[in-house]
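Below is our example:
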Amino acid sequence: MQPASLNFVVREPGESVRLRLHLLTPMLGGGPEQGKPDPEQPFRAKSIRGQLRWWYRRVIQVADAKELWEREAALFGSAGRDADDTTPGKVRIAVDQGPPGARKAVNALEQHRYAWGLFAKEAATNEVVLSHSALVTVSGLDPDALAALAAWLYFGGIGARTRRGFGSLRWVEEAGHLPSYEETARRLAKGCGLRIAGGSGVTVLRHGRLPVASEAGWSKAAMDAWKEALAWYEAFRKGNLQPGLSRAPRGPESHSRWPEANSVRLRQRQRQTREAEVQEAVFPRASLGLPMAVRSAPKSVHSFNNVELEVEGGGRWPSTVITKAVFRGEAVEPTIAVLRGGGPRPDEVVSRGGRTFHADSLSAKGFPTEWFDGRKFQTIPEIEGNTARDKLISYLKYAKRQNAKAWEEVK
């Protein structure tokens, strides 16, 4: 039997879609109090509306900001200074919550690899919803809003840290139809430059597509897929492992080939390691999202004071990388998706902790130049580019050439 997600067709404008939503991966936060789930309504209509607005801006191809705002306001509503200026919007969202699901403290999850997707303060203070379901009806949809709904379901989630795979969803259609995964990915590729690793059962991830034969099997398959996607992105972020390897280098060879640690040493006037030496403070991975921690190994001749990079003024810079388990009808797939988008300016990136300093550059040119192949470091010229996003895309292309199974790229 074909997955239901491959049989979706677009309905006429104004149609309704009714879905039975289920959590695939643990949900973090999502309630009215930041970082906390709502004990009575984990799936809140207000949160879903906010997600749909965000994805609507990614699927619609409107260059004029005023026109985009007017179209978004007509669909999803707008808040004015008084009641006369407030419009409700055409899209209506109704949520019928299922019974309360299981919860667990986040720090109980730290033994698992997916805890890498958390900030330290989240791992120390929050709890997650492990399971929940709700009947969600979305009405008043035109084709663009319908595409946004599909984009949210496939590539987004519910709650916080959805780009790291928390709060991913699966669903059963009870009324109406959605665009297919392939159609949604192509539309996002045009709208926001989405590039996808994984998909259509063609993937270099070890598990590939994970079929699910029973209701009880969803959680394990989703967790395996999620951890697999996170492992690949983690290896890239650490800057030492070639794609697909799990054996990390040890000792001095474990030093990252990214330049951020040496940039901190330069600013703190500490001795640099020979790997990725710098003459200025270069922080290319800051363009993939902030805040970003730069940590030092203790009791080393190369030790430095730990710092955290952030947007000046204490702000965050949203990540352009999505790592998650994607629901594909009767299976889940580990997926890495890269959105188009530049990072902050170097003068907007500031350190917190110890002596404050700004970044000189976010360029990734020349970093990393070597990757550990399980025995030694070697230069891989194919992994190239001037930004960290360019590096990530070429890293995925390298994996495509080097493995029997390939990354699917939506062009």
About this structure: The chain is about 25% helix and 20% strand. Residues 1-13, 199-207, 404-411 have pLDDT under 50 and may be disordered. The helical segments are 45-59, 65-76, 120-125, 143-155, 181-192, 218-238, 260-267, 388-402. Residues 4-190 form one domain.
